[in-house]
Please model this.
Amino acid sequence: MASRGITKIFIGNLPWTVGHRELVSYFKQFGKVLNANVVFDKRSGHSKGYGFVTFLNKSALDNLDNKTVHLLEGNNLNIQKTE
Model:
């Protein structure tokens, strides 16, 4: 099946208020989320403004592409496929 296979995406321009739970909450509408990770600065503990989401199926990418603008807490997200 072409729709199977774990797929990871990069998300840039994340608001500093977004954490792992908010990422899962937003991206689960596109497919089954295996993992969502916001990158934080180790010294300050603040978000670096980017993260990664891993989906169970590649079909989530088609669902993502069907929506042209991805807004999360007012920021237009920059989404790139990593594979």
